[in-house]
Amino acid sequence: MATTTDIKNGLCIEFNNDIYTIIEFLHVKPGKGAAFVRTKMRNVKTGRVLENTFPSGAKIDVVRVERRPYTYLYREGDLYNFMHAETFEQIGIEESIINAPQFLQEGQYVEITVQADTETPLLCELPPFIETVVTYTEPGFKGNTATNAMKDATVEPGVRVRVPLFIEEGERIKVDTRTGEYSERIK
């Protein structure tokens, strides 16, 4: 059991039966009254930010989490199967804890956040950007618009993405996995 004096950025704690990471903290000692610690915490599973004030010296439960490298193998029913990059052990993860399951491709590198004490997977994160190939898009005609016009395109995993008019079938593009938006064309 730790106290509020052990709080630092990046520390993972259990709060309200969930796991949070400390983003910001401030020890405050007012002229009158007891000291306290003002924190901003991010929920590890949902990403939601929460502000909370702890009284000075309050007990907090520290949780040990690890980020481990995995490679995506295949999907079997409701489970997505991954292999650890160093030990080659395989685990199955539910779709609900993967941040962008629609962009997963076989052999893709991901990082899985695991609660070290119980070996429970908490979150599976794809890289912020992935490179993919446009498998289908309508032809775009130059000069039809006065602004940055976009059109629909289907990329390799079968996901629809809005791309600029100059993108054609077979081109490699970079897609932001956090928003699902086109980022740039790869030459």
Care to describe what's here?
It is a single chain. With 187 residues, this protein is mainly β. The protein folds into three domains: 2-62, SH3 type barrels (Roll), CATH 2.30.30; 65-125, Nucleic acid-binding proteins (OB fold (Dihydrolipoamide Acetyltransferase, E2P)); 129-186, Nucleic acid-binding proteins (OB fold (Dihydrolipoamide Acetyltransferase, E2P), Beta Barrel). It contains no helices and 16 strands. It has strands at 2-3, 12-15, 18-28, 36-43, 49-55, 59-62, 65-76, 79-84, 90-94, 109-115, 120-125, 129-137, 150-155, 160-164, 172-176, 181-186. The strands form three sheets. A six-stranded antiparallel β-sheet has the order 1-6-2-3-4-5, with no helix packed on it. A five-stranded antiparallel β-sheet has the order 9-8-7-10-11, with no helix packed on it. It has a five-stranded antiparallel β-sheet with strand order 14-13-12-15-16, with no helix packed on it. A hairpin with a 2-residue loop joins strand 2 (12-15) and strand 3 (18-28). The radius of gyration is 22 Å and the shape is elongated. The model has no long low-confidence stretch (mean pLDDT 87).
Main attributes?
SH3 type barrels; 187 residues; OB fold (Dihydrolipoamide Acetyltransferase, E2P)
SSE map:
Blueprint lengths: L1 E2 L8 E4 L2 E11 L7 E8 L5 E7 L3 E4 L2 E12 L2 E6 L5 E5 L14 E7 L4 E6 L3 E9 L12 E6 L4 E5 L7 E5 L4 E6 L1
Antiparallel strand pairs: 1-6, 2-3, 2-6, 3-4, 4-5, 7-8, 7-10, 8-9, 10-11, 12-13, 12-15, 13-14, 15-16
pLDDT averaged residue by residue = 87
Oligomer: single chain
Low-confidence stretches: none
Indicate the CATH topology of the largest domain.
Answer: SH3 type barrels
Strand neighbour order, sheet with most strands? 1-6-2-3-4-5
User: What share of the residues lie within helices?
Assistant: under 10%
User: How much is the radius of gyration in Å?
Assistant: 22 Å
SS-based class? mainly beta
* N-to-C SSE string, H for helix and E for strand: EEEEEEEEEEEEEEEE
CATH architecture designation of the largest domain = Roll
CATH class of the largest domain: Mainly Beta
| Spatial shape | elongated
Strand count, sense and barrel status of the largest sheet are: 6 strands, antiparallel
Span from first to last CA? Answer: 53 Å
- Strand coverage percent: over 45%
